[in-house]
Write a structure and sequence with these properties.
Blueprint: E1 6-10, E2 13-17, E3 23-29, E4 39-44, E5 47-52, E6 65-66, E7 74-78, E8 81-85, E9 91-97, E10 99-100, E11 107-112, E12 115-120, E13 125-131, E14 133-134, E15 142-146, E16 149-153, E17 159-165, E18 167-168, E19 175-180, E20 183-188, E21 193-200, E22 214-219, E23 222-227, E24 232-238, E25 240-241, E26 249-253, E27 256-260, E28 266-272, E29 274-275, E30 283-287, E31 290-294, E32 300-306, E33 308-309, E34 317-321, E35 324-328, E36 334-337
Antiparallel strand pairs: 1-2, 2-3, 4-5, 6-7, 7-8, 8-9, 10-11, 11-12, 12-13, 14-15, 15-16, 16-17, 18-19, 19-20, 20-21, 22-23, 23-24, 25-26, 26-27, 27-28, 29-30, 30-31, 31-32, 33-34, 34-35, 35-36
Length: about 350
């Protein structure tokens, strides 16, 4: 597994460190993103350019837009047409499509003549461009539209679940979210309805995205959880609920935050002014004006002392203390701290490319 890299800033320029705090890529870029599937994206001559973990820029071609690498290929846009590059930066599939999606299960949705179909990693059109819309394959099925309605295709382009919904999402394991009249429900891979569309679609929420087998639901502005069979595990009774991570989910009640376990029991009673998700066995929580980290029993493992704290990611967490941001390990030891001369006025986690 590749070594995790973390974004830093010195003298207004971005670079990357490893988990020990050693600089791996010298700070030299005005804008940079976190690494994803082995690559960051930086701004170079006002263009997005992939950067690999050795600090090498993929500069064989410059594009108006470069997407994320999925299954070894990234979609790219040149003027108004789309194609794909490989992880060496070479053009793997010629720029020719009106629109293009990411690869998933060996196929990517592409648009020609206002209609969608699917290509393989060699650029061969396997499913003709006859569809109104097309999404990513998952579990051998892909969302697609015909006559204004959505259903699911198989890899041969045959309708396995006939178009009958206002919108559908890719399958998650054995279930998929389907929408009808601004409500969502669940179906299985045979198209059987597991849960009639009944839960509100909330902007900015997952709307049926399952994490660790459970999904947040919202009913009459109250939050709860369902399982993949469509059963209510936690009745909607909270002011807010977040996704499960490490067996715990953040919930809000009466303007205080706490945590549930996967059977719906309150493991940590709502008591914090703010809180984040669990990772590495710890969660950032705010008490008074300061943030620290608690374990799954609610015990303080890193005392409140930070102005801002983010969840752990691959062994390190980003925090802000006395106006300077830094990375800490689960023992609370500082691995890297923003130099005084940097002049950066916000946590690097907020500095994302548009």
């Amino acid at each position: 597994m590749p070594t995790a890299l973390y974004k830093i800033i010195e003298n207004g320029k971005y670079g990357f460190i490893d988990q020990t705090g050693a600089i791996v890529i010298e700070p030299q870029y005005l804008e940079a993103e976190d690494f994803y599937h082995g690559f960051s994206r930086i701004r170079f001559n006002d263009k997005l350019v992939p950067l690999d973990a050795q600090g090498r820029l993929l500069l064989k071609h410059l594009f108006n837009y470069v997407g994320y690498f999925e299954e070894g290929l990234a979609r790219v846009q040149l003027v108004s047409r789309w194609g794909y590059i490989d992880q060496r930066g070479s053009l793997a599939i010629e720029v020719q499509y009106e629109e293009a999606g990411d690869f998933s299960e060996g196929l990517a949705a592409v648009c020609l003549g206002g209609r969608w179909g699917y290509i393989d990693a060699q650029g061969e059109l396997l499913i003709p461009c006859t569809l109104e819309r097309a999404g990513s394959f998952s579990q051998g099925l892909a969302p697609a539209a015909r006559d204004g309605r959505y259903g699911y295709l198989d890899r041969e382009g045959q309708w396995v679940i006939e178009p009958a919904y206002d919108l559908v999402h890719p399958f998650q394991d054995r279930v998929a979210v389907v929408l009808s009249k601004d409500k969502w429900g669940l179906i299985d891979q045979r198209g059987k309805i597991l849960l009639l569309p009944q839960f509100s679609v909330i902007e900015g929420q997952g709307n049926g995205e399952f994490y660790e087998g459970l999904a947040v639901v919202v009913h009459e502005e109250r939050y709860g959880f369902i399982n993949q069979e469509g059963d209510i595990v936690v009745p909607p009774k909270y002011d807010f609920a977040g996704d499960f991570a490490s067996g715990m989910a953040l919930v809000e009640l009466d303007s205080r935050f706490g945590y549930l376990n996967q059977v719906g029991a309150l493991v940590i009673a709502p008591q914090y002014e703010d809180a984040g998700v669990f990772a590495a066995g710890l969660a950032p929580v705010k008490t008074g004006t300061q943030w620290g980290f608690v374990d799954a029993t609610g015990e303080w493992r890193i005392a409140p002392q930070y102005d801002v704290a983010f969840p752990f990611r691959e062994g390190l967490a980003q925090v802000v203390r006395e106006g300077r941001w830094q990375y800490i390990n689960p023992a609370g030891e500082t691995i890297w701290s923003e130099p005084l001369e940097s002049g950066n006025d916000r946590p690097v986690a907020f500095d994302l490319l548009a």
